[in-house]
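hey
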């Protein structure tokens, strides 16, 4: 069964199509959403391209569209200006030259979506693009909302633009080839969505955890649909993150600090966010915002997903990633700070959160210490 979710953004509105075995139709849906272009370029990475680009290209060609593919080496370390320059040069060297009607199709995980989206935002001052995400993290998070960009030497995601896609096509069947460890990253974001907007999502996640891990595509498609609906609603209300879109940062303040301190690769994003969510619950409990039953429920779900809830669950975590002073220093440089104030998203009730800019160093230190106990 296919589910369609609208991201309401006035003239930039678009539809997210979620289903199983959709890849063969992706080309047709992409072309229709972009007004039947006569040219399309698929941008993908070196792992996803060989698996899925042919199916997407065949669908585009069947609409009468000329279709080429550009790929770049897979991995976060390639989401940078060097890769951007090389992909852009290849795009602009195609013969005959592309013009403004060319459609960019991003096929891959969040790295491809961010990089190809930024290429689309900037090539010829802006091309239409369609996103075909292939990881759970990209499905439930990166592919919806129009944030595109690259990492800079000074930090992650410091270069970028808002550029909304014309459509997003999510085929849960492609998750069958996803390395199982990659699933964690998406599942942690799903738990986050439950905490910030829909407490009942946590029951669904708990009941189906074994199915997700076994890559049951029906269960995954339902999970994706529920999460996209949440992210779409948040983005529709606050496209440019002037207000409540920041709620999506729940678990990420301390989580990002742990990820950065550990050195990228030492801990996965999902693991770091799981610890960050537990730490945020600790601060909320310290401030009497929520009771311990609410925090215990989230801990229980994370444990059920084999995500960490204390430092001891990650024996190889470098010492710097548990050091409150180091984590505090990284938080002080977070690009989401305003006037140097670290902002926290804290739970205030099951399924709801609020933004706080008065969390003290003592609270932060106590939350980090609690992860070590
Ligand atoms: N724009 C946003 O709003 C947003 C939000 C969250 C994250 N992000 C970004 O997303 C990126 C992380 O995305 P990710 O976790 O998808 O990582 P990723 O794109 O690096 O993909 C993970 C790995 O899985 C491989 N892969 C992807 N799909 C596959 C499939 N179906 N089968 C087999 N292998 C597959 C990739 O080649 C890669 O090696 C980060 O750069 C992050 O900053 C962006
Ligand atoms: Zn995240």
């Amino acid at each position: 069964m296919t589910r369609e979710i609208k991201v309401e953004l006035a003239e930039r509105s678009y539809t997210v199509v979620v289903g199983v075995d959709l890849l063969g139709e992706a080309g047709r849906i992409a072309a229709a959403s972009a007004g039947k272009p006569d040219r399309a370029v698929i941008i993908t990475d070196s792992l996803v391209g060989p698996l899925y680009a042919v199916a997407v290209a065949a669908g585009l060609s069947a609409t009468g569209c000329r279709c080429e593919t550009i790929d770049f080496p897979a991995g976060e370390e390639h989401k940078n200006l060097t890769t951007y320059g090389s992909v852009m040069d290849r795009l602009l060297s195609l013969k005959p030259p592309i013009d403004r009607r060319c459609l960019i199709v991003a096929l891959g995980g969040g790295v491809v979506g961010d990089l190809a989206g930024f290429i689309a935002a900037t090539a010829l001052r802006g091309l239409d693009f369609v996103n075909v995400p292939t990881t759970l993290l990209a499905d439930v998070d990166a592919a919806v909302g129009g944030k595109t960009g690259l990492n800079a030497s000074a930090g992650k995601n410091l270069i970028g633009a808002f550029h909304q896609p014309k459509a997003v096509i999510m085929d849960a069947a492609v998750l069958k080839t996803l390395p199982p460890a990659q699933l964690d990253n998406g599942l942690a974001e799903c738990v986050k969505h439950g905490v910030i907007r829909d407490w009942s999502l946590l029951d669904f996640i708990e009941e189906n955890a074994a199915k997700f891990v076994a890559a049951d595509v029906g269960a995954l498609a339902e999970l994706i649909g529920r999460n996209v609906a949440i992210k779409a609603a948040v983005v529709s209300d606050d496209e440019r993150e002037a207000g409540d879109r920041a709620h999506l940062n729940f678990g990420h303040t301390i989580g990002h600090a742990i990820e950065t301190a550990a050195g990228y690769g030492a801990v996965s994003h999902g693991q770091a966010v799981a610890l960050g969510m537990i730490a945020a619950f600790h601060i909320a409990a310290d401030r009497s915002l929520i009771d311990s039953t609410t925090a215990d429920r989230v801990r229980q779900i994370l444990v059920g997903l084999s995500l960490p809830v204390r430092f001891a669950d990650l024996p190889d975590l470098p010492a710097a990633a548990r050091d409150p002073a180091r984590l505090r220093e990284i938080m002080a440089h977070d690009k989401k700070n305003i006037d140097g104030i670290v902002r926290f998203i804290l739970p205030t009730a099951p399924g709801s959160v609020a933004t706080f800019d008065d969390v003290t160093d003592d609270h932060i230190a106590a939350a980090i210490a609690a992860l070590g106990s």
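The chain has two domains: 3-178, 250-371. The mean pLDDT is 96.
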